[in-house]
Amino acid sequence: ASWHPPWYSSYTAHYREAECMKEAMEELLYSYGTDIVFNGHVHAYERSNRVYNYELDPCGPVYIVVGDGGNREKMAIEHADEPGKCPEPLTTPDPFVGGFCAWNFTPSGKFCWDQQPDYSAMRESSFGHGIL
């Protein structure tokens, strides 16, 4: 599957911006056995482990953010798990689907993780492209 804003990205740029879409559609992708999802929007690369609802799941898809082609916005380099970099929850609403939808918080009850999340397998801030 493919769409523009990522559901799983640990960069501060566009962090959890499409949470409403994720809440509305993740179960559908999971129930039909989606294996891989490609996204852009965040100007960096990140690949997830198989994940569903922010938890590792052997039946969940792998999410790949390939938004590192670059543009005037420059590269995304800060991660939400770095000290002092977690955005305030109300700064990341999803206005296109009716407001803020981040009901799911980390297992410790926080909006951001305090280390690279388990779902995040690899992240790289450099210009590049992907080949499938």
Automatic annotation (TrEMBL):
<dbReference type="GO" id="GO:0003993">
    <property type="term" value="F:acid phosphatase activity"/>
</dbReference>
<dbReference type="InterPro" id="IPR029052">
    <property type="entry name" value="Metallo-depent_PP-like"/>
</dbReference>
<keyword id="KW-0732">Signal</keyword>
<dbReference type="InterPro" id="IPR039331">
    <property type="entry name" value="PAPs-like"/>
</dbReference>
<protein>
    <submittedName>
        <fullName>Purple acid phosphatase</fullName>
    </submittedName>
</protein>
